[in-house]
Specification:
single chain, mainly alpha, two-stranded antiparallel sheet, two-stranded antiparallel ribbon, 4 helices, about 50% helix, HK97 gp10 family phage protein
């Protein structure tokens, strides 16, 4: 499942991003998005199931800008000024835990059982979406200011 979020009304920040080089703008936006999405990942880690063998689903939850090859089918690609970030578990079984399963059977008729849903990603998103939106603007503003200051220092250093 993909949840898309479009942030509008940030014209001055958008203009500031576009005034930076493309590479710097991409990095700046990704850094701000990663920071803004961190509370979602932290909440998902707190709610993710724990196992007795020491291999915890929570340990695989990350904020990333790329998907694993097995997850890329149908995923959107970033463009020059459109960045995409993902929050989720890298475990191949995460979706089974999140949504649960119905009882399944082998060809022999043997049951593999059913697994009840144990949602951890959706509640993490639902509980933090407003905080993500509120903090994204602040993180973006701070990262743009840092990028502009870095560019000014580089220009001053090159001018000497």
């Amino acid at each position: 499942m993909t949840i898309k979020m479009r942030v509008e009304g940030l014209r001055e920040l958008d203009d500031a991003l576009k005034s930076l080089s493309t590479r710097t703008a991409k990095t700046t936006a990704e850094r701000a998005m990663r920071k803004a999405l961190r509370p979602v990942a932290d909440a998902a880690k707190a709610a993710a199931p724990r196992s007795d063998d020491g291999k915890h689903m929570a340990d695989t939850i990350t904020v990333a800008k790329v998907l694993k090859p097995s997850q890329r089918d149908g995923a959107e690609r970033p463009t020059d000024f459109r960045r995409i970030m993902y929050v989720g578990a890298e475990s191949p079984h995460a979706h089974l835990i999140e949504f649960g399963t119905v009882e399944r059977f082998h060809k022999s008729g043997k049951s593999t059982g059913a697994m009840p849903a144990h949602p951890f990603m959706r509640p993490a998103w639902d509980g933090n979406v407003q905080a993500v939106l509120a903090s994204l603007t602040e993180h973006l503003r701070r990262e743009i200011d840092r990028a502009v200051a870095r560019a000014a220092r580089r220009a001053a250093k090159a001018g000497k």
